[in-house]
Amino acid sequence: MTTGVTxxxxxxxxxxxxxxxxxxxxxxxxxxxxxxxxxxxxxxxTRFDPTPYPARLAGEITGFTAADHLPSRxxxxxxxxxxxxxxxxxxxxxxxxxxxxxxxxxxxGVITASSSGGFEFGQxxxxxxxxxxxxHVSAYQSFAWFYAVNSGQISIRNxxxxxxxxxxxxxxxxxxxxxxxRRQIRKGTPLILSGSIDAPICPWGWVAQLAGGxxxxxxxxxxxxxxxxxxxxxxxxxxxGAILVMEDAERAVERGARAYGELAGYxxxxxxxxxxxxxxxxxRAAELAMADAGxxxxxxxxxxxxxxxxxxxxxxxxxxxxxxxxxRGVPVTAPKTMIGRLCSGAAPLDVATxxxxxxxxxxxxxxxxxxDPGLGLDLVLHQPRPASVRTALVLARGHGGFNxxxxxxxxD
Amino acid sequence: xxxxxxxxxxxxxxxxxxxxxxxxxxxxxxxRTATRAISTFDASGFRSRVAAEIDFDPEQSGLSPQxxxxxxxxxxxxxxxxxxxxxxxxxxxxxxxxxxxxxxIGSAVGATMGxxxxxxxxxxxxxxxLVDHRYATKHLYDHFVPSSFSAEVAWAVGAxxxxxxxxxxxxxxxxSVGHAVELIREGTADVVVAGxxxxxxxxxxxxxxxxxxxxxPRDDDPATASRPFDRSRNGFVLGEGAAVFVLEELGAALRxxxxxxxxxAGYASRCNAFHMTGLRPDGAEMAEAxxxxxxxxxxDPTDVDYVNAHGSGTKQNDRHETAAFxxxxxxxxxxxxxxxxxxxxxxxxxxxxxxEIAASALAMEYGVVPPTANLRTPDPECDLDYVPITARExxxxxxxxxxxxxxxxxxxxxxxRPDRRTP
Amino acid sequence: MPExxxxxxxxxxxxxxxxxxxxxxxxxxxxxxxxxxxxxYESLALLETCGLIEREYGITLDDDTVTEHRTPRAMVEAVxxxxxxxx
Lengths: 412, 423, 87
Prior knowledge:
Chain A is an alpha/beta fold. Chain A has helices at 28-36, 66-69, 80-95, 119-132, 149-158, 173-186, 203-211, 249-254, 282-293, 311-325, 346-360, and strands at residues 13-22, 25-26, 42-44, 57-59, 108-113, 165-168, 191-198, 240-248, 261-270, 302-304, 331-333, 362-363, 378-379, 385-386, 391-398, 402-409. Chain A folds into two domains: 13-254, Thiolase/Chalcone synthase (Peroxisomal Thiolase, Chain A, domain 1, 3-Layer(aba) Sandwich); 264-409, Peroxisomal Thiolase, Chain A, domain 1, CATH 3.40.47.10. Helix content of chain A is 30%, strand content 20%. In chain A, strands 1, 2, 5, 6, 7, 8, 9, 10, 11, 13, 15 and 16 form a twelve-stranded mixed sheet that branches. In chain A, a hairpin with a 3-residue loop joins strand 15 (391-398) and strand 16 (402-409). Chain A is globular. Mean pLDDT of chain A is 96; it is low at 1-7. With 423 residues, chain B is an alpha/beta fold. Helices cover 33% and strands 19% of the residues of chain B. In chain B, the strands form three sheets. In chain B, strands 1, 2, 5, 6, 7, 9, 10, 11, 12, 15 and 16 form an eleven-stranded mixed sheet that branches. Chain B starts with 5 loop residues before the first strand and ends in a 7-residue tail after the last strand. Chain C has one domain: ACP-like (Non-ribosomal Peptide Synthetase Peptidyl Carrier Protein, Chain A, Orthogonal Bundle). Helices cover 53% and strands 0% of the residues of chain C. Chain C has four helices and no strands. Classes of the chains: A alpha/beta (412), B alpha/beta (423), C mainly alpha (87).
């Protein structure tokens, strides 16, 4: 009965374009040039006066002038994160040499992650509401702050009418978005812009993040965010992320596109309820992603760590990595030590970084940290490490118990 | 994992007019409206002062004092609805593999109410630009990132598989269920507790909808303020609520003898790529979403027995949507009952898509189509059978439910009897 | 009343502040009778603009101002009519 039917593997999904925006480099070229050599960009907050707050450091994007990239009509109606996301989407499409006009509108979609939406826009409107009255609230508040705004604005700017979406799972969401993009590509949409940009560095966003209890109050920019270090005392928040062009591999080849690599595996889990005493879900997420990609532990060339910078969470992650790969069994890096944790933008940027590491054969370093040797990690420290990198595992965790993992693999 | 199908086996609804699915259906099937003058704060300075509020006491609904303290109202509504859905499903969650159980919760505006109130405090009534962290609640981070909603539901039901919030504006409630269906079909999960919640009735929401004149200013007649498809319609009525479902792989549900409300047979979402708030009158992208969802369900347009409309009651939406139905269903659009429950329970933004899926499943269950309340003066531009005023007995084997939202998102979902014949 | 008069220059200033300006349109040219749509302003931009005018001039415009007044000339006249009504 099944003669002639072949059970083919699931279609491959590749990344063909990267638009990165980070505190140490805006645009993929500048970002990678800075990251590959470990250039730090953590400093005292400049976007507002941080003096009254116990945490005063951030990874801020400098040198991004929205008006240079976007029409003036878009500026009054967009939060900073949306402006950066629109520019990053443009860069990703340019990098992929993908002209939206050459695709059918329904053949392109946009799937992004968000953590807190356009929080600064919301802050400004809340301030007007409570200090001046409801008539002073902008018409744009009806969408400029909400979680779906980046997907909506990117789809409008680029004429993309296909399956679109937005996922929120704190920092893990950035990987969940990429996986959802892969899912929609496999269901038949050839191209999806995916990833995330977040930018909640404003007083209101600062107070909200302080409430989470994980911000480092260390004053020294080189000692404030030191994951896996015995002195780890929280993280420094940052802004930015990456937007990626993801495509069906065959269609990408047909149009002559170059692929950085394949999103080969994905897994997502949720921790047991607090107080259960059972094992957190991070290891299971990594195992699911590796099984999905069909890679064994000895095929993984580098792990991009979530690197919470909170001792208990660092210990859990180190145990997962040594449990899967053995003590010092795989190079591990956390370039986010240069720029801070970027909310939902962090993980897509790590995926972009992994693909750039594969392309150059160079693992970017983890900066500032002096890891606890007892954790058993082979952390790539201070200097980049030349290495033949074909397969990378990217880990991400979100507040509340979210765990996601992605395996990317270079194309042959 | 191909061939896996997805069943709704449990429903929990917390909507205006009463807590629980029974109260919800009672309201709909009697065509009563739950829209009223805003009672939870002084709305006298606003243009639109009418809303569909729930008389909801979280502790009476079973939440502990600590749960109440840490959760925004939207999270409370979600957890209460999830518990009702679990109980309704008859599924013993303690016996499930937690790793194969997921959660997807939709929400358009997250913890808006909590954020609004917190901002007022930390800014001391808007006075402080550098808001004062010493006055912030410990739980502010959970309002900051609304994935806390799905975390709360996951803890409540013991899920440890894929857990996330889907936030696509006013189609979130459809997209969340659609995403859950994808997870079960592809084999990532066997059971997903899926739905949506929003509790947006707060000064900041009223203010921004006032600014774009999207909400109705019919403050002198709150009970008939929401008038989808009526010639006198002039905006939507803000609502709040949650609906959550237990979704299971159909074969497993049938084997355990579960009551199956419906199969979620097809789903699709498209973007208009046109405008953040505006709609082109032709409804082309919504029609495309409908076409793809019906195709996935292997349902012919002429098999649709009932259309649960977005029907927000704005001038542009109802015209747009009517055009989309005609475009997607052809002449059959004129022969099919179409109704908007927003006439009764208002528009709860990201939640309403799931609340409308609940209404659709219950319409199949009881053989009754809920009406479009307050529809007394037909609009020549909206010329379908909108089931005005009174619910109608009508056997329904296949329902199409749609949503449309800011950002340009257009979503469609198809519920059908699992034993229907497919071509 | 004359010092309260609302001019097309006031309108373009507020439009630009509240909604930016389309790079392909010269707002300093003769735009009085050009449809807002052609100037690059859709209803949302005009709603924001009306809100800013209302607050700056302390007036309330009718709900249908945006849909009824499709050109700068019509909008300026509508605002001036409201300004004289409130004096």
